[in-house]
């Protein structure tokens, strides 16, 4: 019996020793792991802080508005300063009824062999205006372009040779039975998910002068830069009004902007070149625009539209009357080059008929039409007289195109600021999250140690190794 009791006592002591050893090893292992986690968190935070801080330091915080716009008469900084005054007026004007409704033909067939890229997003679809939403005076026969003389239609007859004095522009035809009215504000230009790079590839290959820009004469170089500027403006608008197709939320996507525009300074400079050309066209058209009958059958709206127009024209003529010198620039342009300009702009409008996204098509055709109208004014022998004969759709296209380009210029600083804020906030976020995680792990380690001490105190009242040995010796003596 005594021998059996001694063996049982030894077994209990062994079990207690093994349990205590296991608990000690487990505790050391857990504390060691927690310590390593804290060290790694500190290392990761330090590395992340160093990388993000270096990126922030090396990041360009703003675009450098230095030098004169190539082939223009103004420097970048002056145009930027002027735009800061004009943009709010243009933006408000573009929301007025007379200027926000544009007539466009969406049923033209694609005349080119361009691959089909179907737009599956609902954002591609537009809502056209009902006849009840259109002022009755716009629907009168006198306002239909189809009833105007052919010369007013600015048609280019390629079957016979025209004398330079007969030369006139042709950009866009709107047939009565196909043209629809679109509210540009109810259908705002925004990212739709449509990938239209194949359209731009055709535009650049088929409607730009080929070869090195540096080796081109300025007349040819100018057309390429105008198209590049238009592309830059459209890309900027799609980035500024980016729509997340999953959440349907609209927000400025600075990452997309720098991918398409911001990382290419020459594109921003081409945007300013386009701005200077449109700006000069509006200045030249001042007499005609001031005498234009702004009538949407909404007295207050039309009155405000005229006030805004007069403010824009006054600012334009007082701040910078000649951002682009068309007389000096085009004095050596040949009649054939003029035809090239007209043909290329018209072809771009026709290429826009191949765009499967309705919204993209509307704004592409509208801005091409606006650029064509500006060039018509600049090429005319008497711009002030010619501007008085602008059709409503031409004036609407010109103003809205200038508003879009002005908005794109305004977005430059905003995009740089947003990118800078993101990287700065990233540094702050790393500091906060890293500090919270490290603090949490340190507190957990302290609590764990404290809990372990409390558990050990609980075991003090239980038979340990010494007590068990004494119990065994006592049993032997008995």
TrEMBL record:
Pfam families: ERO1. GO terms for cellular component: endoplasmic reticulum membrane. GO terms for biological process: protein folding in endoplasmic reticulum. Keywords: Membrane, Transmembrane, Transmembrane helix. InterPro entries: Ero1. The chain crosses the membrane at residues 40-59, 422-448. The keyword GTP-binding does not apply. GO terms for molecular function: FAD binding; protein-disulfide reductase activity; thiol oxidase activity. It comes from the Eukaryota. PANTHER family: ERO1-LIKE PROTEIN (PTHR12613:SF0), ERO1-RELATED (PTHR12613). This is Endoplasmic reticulum oxidoreductin. It comes from Paramecium sonneborni.
């Amino acid at each position: 019996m005594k021998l059996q009791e001694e063996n049982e006592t030894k077994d209990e002591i062994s079990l207690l020793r093994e349990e205590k050893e296991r608990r000690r090893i487990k505790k050391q292992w857990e504390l060691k792991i927690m310590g390593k986690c804290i060290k790694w968190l500190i290392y990761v935070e330090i590395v992340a802080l160093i990388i993000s801080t270096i990126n922030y330091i090396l990041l360009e915080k703003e675009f450098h508005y230095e030098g004169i716009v190539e082939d223009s008469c103004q420097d970048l900084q002056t145009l930027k300063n002027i735009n800061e005054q004009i943009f709010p007026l243009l933006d408000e004007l573009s929301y007025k009824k007379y200027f926000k409704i544009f007539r466009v033909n969406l049923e033209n067939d694609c005349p080119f062999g361009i691959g089909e890229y179907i737009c599956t997003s609902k954002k591609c679809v537009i809502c056209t205006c009902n006849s009840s939403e259109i002022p009755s005076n716009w629907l009168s026969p006198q306002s239909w372009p189809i009833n105007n003389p052919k010369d007013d239609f600015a048609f280019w007859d390629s079957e016979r040779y025209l004398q330079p004095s007969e030369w006139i522009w042709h950009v866009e035809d709107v047939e009565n039975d196909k043209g629809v009215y679109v509210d540009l504000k109810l259908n705002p230009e925004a990212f739709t998910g449509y990938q239209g790079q194949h359209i731009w590839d055709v535009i650049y290959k088929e409607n730009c002068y080929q070869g090195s820009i540096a080796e081109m004469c300025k007349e040819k170089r100018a057309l390429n830069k105008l198209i590049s500027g238009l592309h830059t403006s459209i890309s900027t608008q799609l980035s500024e009004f980016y729509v997340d197709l999953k959440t349907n939320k609209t927000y400025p996507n600075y990452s997309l902007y720098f991918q398409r525009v911001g990382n290419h300074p020459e594109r921003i400079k081409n945007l300013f070149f386009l701005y200077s050309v449109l700006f000069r066209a509006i200045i030249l058209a001042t007499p005609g625009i001031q005498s234009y009958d702004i009538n949407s059958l909404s007295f207050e709206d039309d009155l405000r539209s005229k006030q805004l127009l007069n403010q824009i024209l006054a600012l334009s003529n007082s701040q910078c009357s000649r951002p682009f010198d068309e007389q000096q620039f085009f004095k050596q342009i040949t009649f054939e080059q003029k035809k090239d300009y007209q043909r290329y702009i018209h072809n771009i409008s026709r290429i826009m008929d191949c765009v499967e996204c309705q919204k993209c098509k509307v704004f592409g055709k509208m801005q091409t039409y606006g650029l064509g109208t500006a060039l018509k004014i600049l090429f005319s022998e008497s711009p002030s007289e010619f501007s008085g004969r602008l059709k409503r759709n031409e004036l609407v296209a010109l103003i809205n195109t200038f508003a879009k380009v002005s908005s794109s210029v305004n977005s430059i600083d905003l995009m740089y600021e947003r990118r800078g804020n993101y990287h700065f906030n990233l540094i702050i976020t790393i500091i906060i999250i890293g500090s919270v995680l490290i603090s949490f792990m340190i507190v957990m380690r302290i609590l764990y140690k404290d809990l372990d001490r409390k558990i050990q105190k609980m075991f003090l009242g239980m038979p340990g190794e010494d007590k068990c040995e004494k119990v065994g010796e006592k049993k032997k003596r008995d």
